[in-house]
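A quick word before the example. In earlier lectures we treated sequence and structure as two separate objects. From today on, think of them as two lines of the same record. Here is DUF1861 family protein written that way.
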Amino acid sequence: MVETKIKPISAFISEYLAERKPRKGEVLRFEGCGGRDVYNCSVPFDFNGKTYIWGRVEKREEWATSVSVLFEQKDDGSFVRAEGADAYQLEDPFFMEIKGEYILGGTHVVKDKAKIKTYYVYFYRGKSPFALKYFTTGPDYMKDVRLVELTNGRIGVFSRPRNDEILEKFGTVSQIGYTEIDSLDELDAEVIDRAAYIPGCFAENEWGGVNQAIALRGGLIGLIGHQGYTLWKGEQEYPIYVNTAYIYDPAHNEIVKKEVIGVLSDYPPTDTKTPAHIYCAFTSGIVGTGEKVRLYSGLGDAHEGWVEIPDPFRGYR
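And the structure line, produced from the sequence above:
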């Protein structure tokens, strides 16, 4: 195993908790879902004068049975299903614009005899969120692939490999990789698999991934992501997921800055999918460019919310 001396995420969390201040926030309200939870959403976006968000919809007592649905925001701030939009068999949807096209992605779970066999990221593209066509698939057993349109016109691609080889070599559950392409037509599993690992992202037994990538000044890339580890209290296992921000320098393949920007207790209190999910905040991304931005996150695998935070990329935009 490669010997690493990387600061553990638990230390970042402790520093964050020691300095954090109360935050303005809200839990999103979704209507017309038949009692199902909506969580781990995309960030909200505007299209033709209206605000929309993609959400993962699932029954509280079920796993890996999600669909991703487009919701439209009403005048009172709540969200209802957008008429005329397809539902997709995806978990944890993300949505972005690349070179004049909208891109929807998410985790597609494959089952065999009702058991999870593997999963992939499926990608859809189109000129409208109401007219998206499936066009490519990520690598086997990989979630959290993300794209970003760079200032030089190329497309940055972030991967998140997770396998026994990584655990044996690095002692981490997953890694983050990076590569670039010139066109969406080049995006496929082979390209994503070739992404070079970014050193220093995770300490031993940690995992994480990129949820949103934002092009910054000077060729840098801002990454809003999640990072986690397993906390044991007696015989009870608790997955810890926190909201993180990185500033990445692709020219030197290094992380320039890293910080925790949110934890579940920052958000208004909610119930969770199971009692074990009381520390689980699965990041969606940030919205805004001023001194303050809204950080959106899934909450306890059961809800979606936001809190107002200082822009983690201030001074770099």
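Notice the following. The chain has one domain: 9-310. We will return to this example when we discuss secondary structure assignment.
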